[in-house]
């Protein structure tokens, strides 16, 4: 990320969600509270206001089509499918007894806030880079809840385990779910390994971890264009880590985890779109759920 600047990709994800909600036939995929909170967050920063204004412009839809064609076919709809799939899996874990949810690199996502309102007996912690988090904390000041805590961490320079242990809102003994959406690709493999080790040390055996990961750019399961790599380098958010989905199980074993589920584009389509919808979907990012085993 560029120094002292909120994550550009966090703005892009939220603008994509707002675009789906305001301008497409898929608007019903975006729950009303997600849309309202998204609007609130964007309206509290200069960049966010610019992104909201762009959504109203006539040529914006064409711009989305062109950008998708050049960089990432189907990505805008993918953002909301990914979020809906994460919420679906999170609710399953909550039903099964999870009492604490820790969102890593939460960006401008509203899941923790929406669930914290709905489930006062569950503890939520949002962790993000301070440069991104400051805008969200400002925007959501009046929605502050006792069971929702914000903690700023730069994963590149700070230790997740130490920072979370110091956080008074965190309870190590609670059955926990960690969520990491749209972030692993920006971390090095050492930072990823550190994240897995930290989660295990902090919350122990049985802890659940829901995260998204990218297939390598040259994988047949990925429809992103090579030029995306150059663009992401240019905006200071280069891709550093990818994982072939067929190799995920072996990778998770090394991290002392077993795989619980793997949702890819076809599962997203089955879960949330009508059977024969011919829309082009993004391929190359999947959602994995894992459980930490005894070391
Ligand atoms: C693409 S955004 C995803 C945001 C959100 N999880 C979502 O999917 O809507 C990437 C997020 O990773 C965070 N991030 C990137 N590098 C980070 C780092 N080194 N430390 C902490 N957070 C980081 C950014 O601040 C940003 O919120």
Attribute tags:
7-stranded mixed sheet, binds S-adenosylmethionine, 295 residues, alpha/beta, Rossmann fold, single chain, globular, 7 strands
Summarize the topology.
Layout: H1 8-23, H2 32-43, H3 46-56, H4 60-70, H5 75-95, E1 100-104, H6 111-118, E2 123-128, H7 130-139, E3 148-152, H8 160-166, E4 176-180, H9 189-203, E5 208-214, H10 227-234, H11 248-254, E6 257-263, H12 265-272, E7 285-292
Parallel strand pairs: 1-2, 1-4, 2-3, 4-5
Antiparallel strand pairs: 5-7, 6-7
This protein binds S-adenosylmethionine.
Query: What is the percent of helical residues?
Result: 40-55%
Number of strands: 7
H and E string: HHHHHEHEHEHEHEHHEHE
Bound ligands, each once: S-adenosylmethionine
- Biggest beta sheet summary: 7 strands, mixed
Helix vs. strand class: alpha/beta
**What is the CATH architecture term?**
3-Layer(aba) Sandwich
CATH homologous superfamily heading: Vaccinia Virus protein VP39
Our estimate of the beta-strand percent is 5-15%
- Pick out the low-confidence regions: none
Q: Return the CATH topology.
A: Rossmann fold
Tell me the Rg in angstroms.
Answer: 18 Å
**Mean pLDDT across residues:** 95
- Summed up, the helix count is 12
Spatial order of the strands forming the largest sheet = 3-2-1-4-5-7-6
User: According to CATH, what is the class?
Assistant: Alpha Beta
